[in-house]
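Q: Structure tokens for this one, please.
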Amino acid sequence: MKNTTKQTSKAPITLGKQRSYNEIVEFLDNNWTTNSSDLSLSCIKKLDTAFESLSQKQNIIVVNGTNGKSLTIHFAIQLLKEEGLKVGAFASPHILLYNERFNLQGESISSKLFTEIANEVINTAEALEITPNSYEILTIMALLYFKKNDVDVILFESTDHPLISLFHPRITAVTRVTLDNALPASQEVEVRIQKLLSTVKKGTHVVSADQSKLNLQIMLDVVKEKGGQWDMPIRKLAPLEYPYEQLHGRCAALAERISSIYVNDFANKNAVVVAGTLLTKQKGRRGRPTLEAKRQGDLNPKKTVEQFWKEEQQLLANRFQILDKEKPTILLDTASNLDAFKNLLLGIRLLHYKRPLKGLTLLIGCNNNDIDLTEFLKLLRYFFKKTSGNVMLCPIQALPGHSGGTPWDVEKVTNDTKSMKIKAKAYNNFKDGFEAACKSVDERHGLVIVTGSPSIVTEYWKYKGVKKL
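A: Here is the predicted structure, written as tokens:
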């Protein structure tokens, strides 16, 4: 029987200040860097203990890696829901509202419940006389929210915050591992992988969609050292529709493997027969099916994973989203590193093959100062050798809760882009850049890509007057 998606909550505690939703948002906006030097995680440990060690008592799947985490979680939510499980997900960053980080059965938390749970966690921290930062508060809020709603499993999108090491997940999944340097040293990659696998404990299943043999070997060594269970890495792409198989197929395949491991090794571990399942391996049946079994199969055909992928939504809102009802068509993408930009440029080419474009403009607002600009410009030069179009750049400040630092020096980057014989122009703000980008392409058959960071996608929706996605 499938679980309902009804959101429930205990009454909030009465002690302490009861902040409004807007006061909670202001509090979180102002405390992202609070206590950032606490490498011992004393705050989050005390807060976790106060809530009966929620980090240790729930079924958690951690998804991390350079890119593709949100998309992998999106696909896994749908697969696990199809199996009749109640699924929670904690993802980052949000685009407009903090509510977006809390996902229950595919729906964001209500503002009322968000406010209640935030007050409960913040007031508990104040009673303990500790000062956790916003990410730590949101993490405990998520664990508490999913506990109150009796979820079966939580999908947790990992960040670089060390608190992730507190978890003892059933499964740790790594999408892929890349660095923004042109030629990353193997030692840097090893340090990065050690960090990504900090959640691995004895018995934790580990699966990856990375395609580098060196990276996979390092992962295998780390997993063995920690006593985890290494599962075969992802090779094939999930059969999505064109062009999403090439873009998202490996994330979908990773989601399928994650879901299959959880269903078979944890949710239905001792089941002999489970009705209505896509992923459960049937136990206790050998040899060819009987004539009666075949007849029953013909009368009651079972939905297959292939059918699921044909029906599943291939896009992820605001991460890679095509707004084809806009004039001109808008593509939103949060790409902010070399690996993500490569995938974005591939996606644009595939869309161009599917539907010839009359005008193409990339509006880029980036605040990732770690990216290798030389390599980034090489990517653009190679892309524009085969596809006509132009680049527009505008400064974008990282919003609270978003990664990134100071905006690029758009004048310098624009001049460097022009030196690569790419049409480029700088603008002082998003509004001016976006309006110029729209005018630069055909209204019916043109494409404007808004990319460079999650913050520029936020700027797009604010420009459109949208307050809630």
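A few notes: The chain has 16 helices and 14 strands. The radius of gyration is 23 Å.
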